[in-house]
Structures are given as structure tokens and as C-alpha cells.
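Is this the right way to post C-alpha cells for a design question? Let me know if I should format differently. Anyway, here goes:
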């Protein structure tokens, strides 16, 4: 049995709703009362990122979304999201695109009942829509990628990124080493070093678009008109940065779409890319319009690994429960790092076999 197989199944990824529902309902009512609002909270739910989220309908007024952080990490995440949305809302370069941003109505992140209140944006989450109508997958993907590219073009600039790679990679590798015990020693530490070497080596000298990057752009964070399938909102800006590698948003969306439609874990989808040393042709076609997309299988795989690194590090920073879930670690961290180690072991042998000296000795 492999280490990955041993990890799976030891701890469920999602909390058990029946155990948390009464406590969550009581907390939602207390939060509603603290706002001086009338009516009952609508379907409070606890996310894996330590947030209690519910909708509050206020008569004729627009519905609001209430988020209650249940840990220091969740509070920090909401604070970062507020600041990112504030900066984007004031950015005149975005023009009408700002209609896709949530509107913060109240921010109260100190005290015994911290919360954030946002105006509910119209539409339904893309992942919910796709569960009902998977045939809309391509339309949803094209709509989402078109919208996020508008943000990238408005705020980004194509730059040579060698000097930025360390800042994009090193802190996130440190998160994995800090949060996932397996990554601190032995094969885990060796694999993290291999990821850093591959990404920095294969993207050095490349020119990429650097600008506002959502950082967690997947179907669950995109709202769509249910009837027309057009994009009506982009939510959860907790991982957003103003100077990130913008193409990661597009890669994240395409890879998480494959994760959702195939029913496989995100890490397993990434591990397949590393194993093949390329994206699937249909995914490459979807990404063909990304500005300054580096070409070639090595760069393609490096971008995929960078996308994976931002995704898993972002989750680990949001909640300690990701690292405590052996199944999540096995399927989303160990599976990828194991494939990186296997691929790195094969690379020197292939290089030696292709060298002129080796070919001269071959009969």
C-alpha cells in the first residue's frame, strides 16, 4: 500500500451537516439580531474554510449575504477580501466590469460576533448550474474566461518574470512545508524542492501578463444567469493580488472544470498533466486566447504546477482543516508531488539517452 493510499479515508473532508446544523442556525439568528435585521436567516451553512454563510432577505430591499468567520484564519481571509474588493471597486480602469464585484455593506471583524455583509449578486454558482446542466460546460467556461481576461487586460502588463518567480513560488512552498507534515522531510521536502526548480527553470525568461489576479477562480466563485448562461458576478476575492501571474486564473478555471466534470480530485487532474507533460488538447484550445501564454510542454507543465501551488497553498492558509484531512492531503498534495518526483527521476535518464555521446555508442 502506498503512502497516498494509507492517507485516504482517515478523515472526511466535509463536516457532518447533521451535527453542525442546530449550532449554525442558533449562531445565524444571533448574528441577524446583532444587525438589527428582521426575518429568519436563509439556510445557514458552514464552509470548509471556517465560514458560516447565510442569506438574509429584508423585505423589499435587496438580499444580503452574511459571512461569519469562525477562526482567526477565516477573519484574516475576510479582511484581505474586503481590501481587494475596495481597491478593485475604486479602480477606474475597470469601468463597467465592476458590476461583477460584490458590494460590502457592513464590515465588523472585531468583537464576539465578527461578520461581513455583502449585497447578494444575481445568478447561480457555475458549479451548481453545471451539476444540473453539464452540457453547458463549454459555454460556462468561455463566458468565465472572457470575463476574467477583461480584468487582466485592464490591469495587467506583459513583463519578463524571472525576478518575480521566487516571490510567486517560495512563500507558497513554505505554506505546504508548514501545514503538511509529510512535506517537511524526506520525499516530501525533496518534491517541494523539485517543484520550485521546475517552475523557476521552465518559466525563467518568459514574458507573462502581470496584474490583478483572483487567485481562486473556479466555477464555485463565478455567478451566472441561469437562463442565458452569461456571467453576472465573481465572488470570494480572499486570494486576490494586484501583481500576480494573471494566466493562473484561466488555468485554475479550466483545471477545476475538468475536476468537476470528471468527478476526480483537483490534484489528480494536475498529476495527470505532470505525467503526460502536457495539457489535454481540448484544455489547450480553451486556453488559446490567454495573453502571453507560454508555449511548449515544459512551460505548460510549469504553469500547471504554479497553478496547483497557488490553489493548495491558498486552501491551507484559509483553514487548518485542509491539512488535517488525510484524504485531501493524499489526493491533492501527495498525488502531485509523487508524480513530480517520478518525472524528475526519469528526466536525467531521458536526457542522457538523447545526448550525442549516448547516440554514438548505440549500435
Amino acid at each position: 500500500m502506498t503512502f497516498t493510499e494509507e492517507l485516504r479515508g482517515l478523515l472526511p473532508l466535509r463536516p457532518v451537516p447533521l451535527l453542525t446544523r442546530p449550532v449554525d442556525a442558533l449562531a445565524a439568528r444571533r448574528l441577524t439580531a446583532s444587525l438589527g435585521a428582521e426575518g429568519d436567516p436563509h439556510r445557514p451553512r458552514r464552509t470548509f474554510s471556517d465560514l458560516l454563510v447565510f442569506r438574509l432577505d429584508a423585505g423589499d430591499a435587496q438580499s444580503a449575504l452574511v459571512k461569519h468567520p469562525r477562526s482567526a484564519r477565516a477573519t484574516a481571509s475576510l479582511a484581505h477580501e474586503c481590501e481587494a474588493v475596495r481597491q478593485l471597486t475604486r479602480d477606474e480602469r475597470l469601468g463597467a466590469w465592476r458590476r461583477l464585484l460584490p458590494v460590502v455593506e457592513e464590515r465588523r471583524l472585531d468583537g464576539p460576533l465578527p461578520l461581513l455583509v455583502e449585497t447578494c449578486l444575481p445568478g447561480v454558482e457555475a458549479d451548481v448550474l453545471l451539476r444540473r446542466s453539464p452540457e453547458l460546460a463549454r459555454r460556462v467556461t468561455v463566458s468565465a474566461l472572457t470575463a476574467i481576461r477583461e480584468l487582466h487586460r485592464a490591469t495587467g502588463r506583459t513583463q519578463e518574470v524571472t525576478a518575480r518567480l521566487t516571490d510567486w513560488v517560495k512563500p507558497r512552498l513554505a505554506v505546504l512545508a508548514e501545514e503538511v507534515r509529510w512535506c517537511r522531510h524526506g520525499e516530501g521536502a525533496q518534491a517541494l524542492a523539485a517543484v520550485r526548480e521546475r517552475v523557476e527553470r521552465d518559466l525563467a525568461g518568459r514574458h507573462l501578463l502581470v496584474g490583478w489576479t483572483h487567485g481562486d477562480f473556479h466555477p464555485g466563485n463565478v455567478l451566472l444567469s441561469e437562463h442565458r448562461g452569461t456571467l453576472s458576478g465573481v465572488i470570494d476575492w480572499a486570494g486576490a493580488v494586484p501583481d500576480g501571474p494573471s494566466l493562473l486564473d484561466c488555468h485554475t478555471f479550466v483545471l477545476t472544470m475538468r475536476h468537476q466534470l470528471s468527478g476526480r480530485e483537483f490534484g489528480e487532474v494536475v498529476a495527470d498533466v505532470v505525467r503526460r507533460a502536457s495539457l489535454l488538447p481540448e484544455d489547450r484550445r480553451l486556453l488559446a486566447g490567454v495573453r502571453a501564454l507560454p508555449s511548449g510542454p515544459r512551460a505548460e507543465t510549469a504553469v500547471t504546477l504554479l497553478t496547483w501551488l497557488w490553489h493548495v497553498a491558498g486552501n491551507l492558509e484559509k483553514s487548518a482543516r485542509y491539512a488535517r484531512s488525510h484524504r485531501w492531503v493524499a489526493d491533492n498534495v501527495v498525488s502531485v508531488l509523487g508524480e513530480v518526483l517520478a518525472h524528475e527521476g526519469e528526466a536525467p535518464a531521458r536526457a542522457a539517452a538523447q545526448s550525442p555521446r549516448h547516440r554514438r555508442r548505440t549500435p
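Format looks fine. Someone answered above. Worth noting: The chain is about 55% helix and 15% strand. The two ends are 41 Å apart (CA to CA).
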